[in-house]
Amino acid sequence: MQWTAAIQWPIEMRGKKILFGVCGSIAAFKAAGWVHTLTKEGAQVQVLMTSAAARFVTPLTFTALSGSPAQSEMFAGDMAHIALSAATDIILIAPATAQTIARLAQGLADDLLAAAVLSSPAPVVICPAMNSRMLDHPATQRNLRILREFGYTVVEPECGRLACGEEGAGRLAEWDTVREVLLSLLTTQDLAKQQVLITAGPTREPLDPARFLSNRSSGKMGYALARTAKRRGATVTLISGPVALEPPPGVQVVRVETGLEMAEAVSQYAPTASIVVKAAAVADFRPAAFSVEKIKKTTTEPLLELTPNPDILAELGRTRRASQVLIGFAAESSKHEAEGKRKLLAKNADMIVVNDILGQDTGFDVDTNQVTLITQDSIEQLDLLSKEETADRIWNKALSLLDSKRRQYGIEQI
Ligand code: CTP
């Protein structure tokens, strides 16, 4: 299989020009890692440093990581701030100190970074990092309010142990959160105003206090759907079985364990959703009885009695509004297309995403997938893609299904 690293990086980042402002904070060392990652993901990063930043990390480090000379000199003689800011898709300032936040709030242009921000029409993302008392001070809070009024995005700092040894708010936000903010700003918000519900992961059906029945679902496809929907502006609820994944930033996660719990949660959240995607691998059966005591070894052959779990997708197909888009998955090892079509009809879904669980790089617990999208009037086989790119294609199709429903039934207020 030809799996190049470039495929797994979001297309939104590739070739984007990012002006990366670094200020004088101990968190500047984290910025070096971020510059490295952004460059690796295909962005063109130009680092601008305040003079204080250069006391924490040398410009040479940022030059080497970004492949472009880190700059801080305002009077280089070539109107650097105008040239830099004109050709920029996004400005990221991380770490942003109280000092630089105050200068930006006042509209000062007293160094290259401040002048570039002032002269650029690009979206600005501010990631504050400082001592919690400096952050809480009314002056800093007022300055941050002003920056928000300018339309800048402020990524809230996190709570935890600070470099000064104190505990509190003021730690630089996590990269995953900041990366999603950047990607949202670089992505068309075509799912804005959509309320989407996604289920992901396996379910666990307990047998006794030590054992359960489950399956090999990792939840990666469902989590990729949640992450990309949020990136495209949707309000996302993710009902998740037990998985070892970090929840995507900004997504409401409802954790469940069993198929019955998942059915209950879905019935609670589905009515307000405009799009429902059932990516979870719900166990079809559960043990007929739960043993409170651990089941002991016996000399006779044990018999395990099972009882069916509710089919959540089929139940949604029976009860949903006609204007709601309902998407299911079908994990198949043979007769993929025929099984997909059968499930589309049997469960009254608008689309079934069929994936081959036996295929190389398309089964459980991998970052890639190759799926076929089956609707009532189309069959589309996608290439082998990252799960995030696969998710984006599913959302494209979901939007066109939603659009045709809206033309058919009119726009409905939920
Ligand atoms: N599904 C569900 N509730 C179940 C079983 C499945 O909601 N109890 C949903 C899955 O989330 C998926 C779709 O139904 O969106 C198809 O799941 P799949 O396991 O492929 O099909 P099954 O209906 O279970 O049929 P089979 O296992 O016989 O292929």
Description:
The protein has 414 residues and is α/β, with parallel strands linked by helices. The protein has 14 helices and 21 strands. The strands form six sheets. An eight-stranded mixed beta sheet has the order 12-11-8-13-16-17-19-20, with helices on both faces. It has a five-stranded parallel beta sheet with strand order 2-1-3-4-5, with helices on both faces. Helix 13 (336-346) links the parallel strand 16 (325-332) and strand 17. It is elongated, with a radius of gyration of 25 Å.
The structure class reads alpha/beta
> What spatial order of strands do you see in the largest sheet?
12-11-8-13-16-17-19-20
Number of domains: 2
Give the beta-strand count: 21
CATH architecture of the largest domain: 3-Layer(aba) Sandwich
Helical content stands at 25-40%
| Main β-sheet description | 8 strands, mixed
- Tell me, rounded to a whole number, the average pLDDT: 93
Number of helices: 14
Q: Could you tell me the strand content as a percent range?
A: 15-25%
